[in-house]
Structures are given as C-alpha cells and as structure tokens.
Design goal:
Blueprint lengths: L8 E5 L4 H12 L3 E6 L2 H11 L3 E5 L5 H15 L4 E4 L15 H30 L1 E6 L12 H21 L3 E8 L8 H13 L9 H12 L10 E4 L13
Parallel strand pairs: 1-2, 1-4, 2-3, 4-5, 5-6, 6-7
Length: 252
C-alpha cells in the first residue's frame, strides 16, 4: 500500500512509549520525519536514539500551551512543514465511581485528554495546515462508546474526543481531514493494571482471542494519516479485536 508519507512531517503526542511509540516507528518506516512529544525527557531521548535522525523530541505536558507552541515551532524550524498531527497522549489519574471523583483529578483528565486534543489541533491549523492542508488523527477508546465500571470520567473524555473529531472534520475541511481511532484493551503500561491480571479473561471475550498490541493501533493511525484516507474524514475506526460486538444473550 502506498501511503504517500515519504518526506512528510508528523507530530505525535505521547510518542515515547506504548501506542504512540509504535505510531512513530511506523511513520518512520513509511519515510516520514517525526517530532515526538512526551513529558519525560529520558523516555524521549531513548526513542530518538533508537529511531535515528528522522526523529526529534520535545518534552512538555500537552496541556501547556507554551510547550505546545514550542513543539510546533520546532517541527517547522527543523523540517519546514507539518503534514500530520497525531493526538495520542492521554491520562487517567482516577479509578472509581463518578460519585467519588475529586475536582483536581477530574480537571487534570479533561485538560490532557480533551483540551489537549483541541489545543494542539488549533496550533497546527494556525501554524501550517490552514494554508497547506494536512491530516489530524485523534486516539480515543472503545470506552468512549459505552459505559464501563470505574473509568466513567476517563471514558467521558474519550467520548468527547469522538465528537470533537466530527466537529473538527466539519470545521477544517476541505484543507484538513480529521479522523479517530478507538482502541480496545492494548498491551501498554497505561492499561497494565487491566490486562496483566485479567488477560486470559479478556481474550476469552474477544473474537480475536487476544488483547491488542500497540502496532495494531499504529496501523490504523498510519492509514488515516496516509493518502489512502484522503476522502475519509470525521470517522472513528474501532480497533478492538471485536470486543464491542459483545457476547450476545443466546448461548452458542
């Protein structure tokens, strides 16, 4: 499949580990140059060292507007363009019922997951994409499609990302396409508390009979970033091994 990404420039938030790290590696394989954004400098340095000269790192919190502006300025100064933005980073500082969440953790989740998606898209649009066009790919979750115990607030922000994807697609077309990937349970550090203890049970309820790997999501992100998806916008692709199909009520 010809992706048309050779020579393009991408920026990936949360790109030093997990899904983001897999996305960066796939983009580099397709010939893109990538600005990797993450909070921890040590992880950034390791990613840049492993992936080579096509990758440059920038350490910041995604909710920090000054840091976001600096990252986009870095992309333009180093590479001269910004064709693809992947809003991947997320946080979930609270696990429990909605009726017990405190304001501090609620606001932190919204700032990173929801506002971060809007902020980085605004800045990429203003700095480059409004004139030259581009692709925006947001990473949500299947939790944004259905209620689940103890992660309702996090899932609410992920549902917002799905709606924001549709709104952005309407507002930024025809210059920019905006699409979304909604992963299921993926083998990452962030979801380790779920899959490490319950991997067999989760796999047994999924038609694909396994939990997902970061590269499963990276393939979907790269598709939306590529020329193959040039006539696709405002869409959310669920990549969950069939988890959202459910088990049904009738024994098989």
């Amino acid at each position: 499949m010809k992706t048309g990404l050779d020579g393009k420039v991408a920026l990936v938030t949360g790109g030093s580990r997990g899904i983001g790290r897999a996305v960066v590696a796939r983009l580099v394989d397709e010939g893109a140059r990538v600005v990797v954004v993450a909070r921890k400098p040590e992880a950034l340095e390791a990613t840049c060292r492993e992936l080579g000269e096509a990758v440059v790192g920038h350490a910041t919190n995604v909710a920090d507007e000054a840091g976001a502006r600096a990252a986009i300025a870095l992309a333009l100064a180093r590479f001269g363009r910004l064709d693809v933005l992947v809003n991947n980073v997320s946080t979930n500082p609270y696990f429990g019922p909605l009726m017990q969440i405190d304001r501090e953790r609620a606001e932190r989740t919204v700032q990173v997951n929801q506002w971060g998606t809007v902020l980085w898209t605004q800045l990429a649009w203003q700095a480059y994409m409004a004139e030259h066009g581009g692709r925006v790919v947001n990473v949500s979750s299947i939790g944004g499609l259905m209620p689940e115990p103890n992660i309702g607030w996090y899932n609410g922000t992920k549902a917002a990302i799905i709606q924001l994807t549709r709104q952005m697609a309407q507002e930024l077309g025809p210059k920019v396409t905006v699409n979304c990937v909604a992963p299921g349970v993926i083998r990452t550090d962030m979801s380790k508390a779920i899959w490490q203890r319950h991997e067999q049970a989760i796999a047994a309820r999924v038609p694909a009979a396994r939990i997902g790997e970061p590269d499963d999501i990276a393939g979907a992100v790269v598709f939306f970033a590529s020329d193959q998806a040039r006539y696709v916008t405002g869409q959310t692709l669920v990549v969950d091994g069939g988890a959202t199909l459910g088990q049904g009520m009738v024994p098989g």
